[in-house]
Amino acid sequence: MVVLNKIYTRTGDAGDTALGNGSRVAKYDDRVNAYGTVDETNATVGLARLHAGGEVDAQLAMIQNDLFDLGADLCRPDMASDAAAEYTPLRMTDAQVDRLEREIDAMTQAVEPLRSFVLPGGSALSAHLHLCRTVSRRAERLCVALAAHDEVNPAALKYLNRLSDWFFQASRIANDDGRADVLWIPGANR
């Protein structure tokens, strides 16, 4: 259980922050950018949930929890030291990726195949889910960049890759199963 008795600590006043293993890095470190953008993704999901209900809201709630798991995973470098840690570090799992894939597959069955690219919009929920999609794609790019020079849990990378697909299909579901999608018309304004 997390207990926060004091919100500010002053420990980051010089521009650095602590990672999950206690090491300190600059606040602009690639790892901090990666998990910070995962947190930003989570905030966009909170906005989308204001327009969601039923099963979609429940799925988004699970995604929000997963995104906190993902942030915890990313803030803890050096997976090789997990066994020696005082407590078992939280890591993303393939089961979380598998759940997203099952949900994506179910949504894909409910919508017509696309014949054009979709513009963000339609319903309020769909527009917010497109924002979730684009922010999660940025989080994925930052995690991939981090993985180019530092260890990142492969399940974390897979989760982020599937997540943007999940948001895309959910945006189509939110647009009357794709019937209210706003389609791109190439060159329409020339």
TrEMBL record:
The keyword Nucleotide-binding applies. Residues 7-173 form the Cobalamin adenosyltransferase-like domain. The keyword Nucleotidyltransferase does not apply. Its EC number is 2.5.1.17. Pathway: Cofactor biosynthesis; adenosylcobalamin biosynthesis; adenosylcobalamin from cob(II)yrinate a,c-diamide: step 2/7. It comes from the Bacteria. Keywords: ATP-binding, Cobalamin biosynthesis, Cytoplasm, Nucleotide-binding, Transferase. It catalyses: 2 cob(II)alamin + reduced [electron-transfer flavoprotein] + 2 ATP = 2 adenosylcob(III)alamin + 2 triphosphate + oxidized [electron-transfer flavoprotein] + 3 H(+); 2 cob(II)yrinate a,c diamide + reduced [electron-transfer flavoprotein] + 2 ATP = 2 adenosylcob(III)yrinate a,c-diamide + 2 triphosphate + oxidized [electron-transfer flavoprotein] + 3 H(+). GO terms for cellular component: cytoplasm. This is Corrinoid adenosyltransferase. It comes from Loktanella atrilutea.
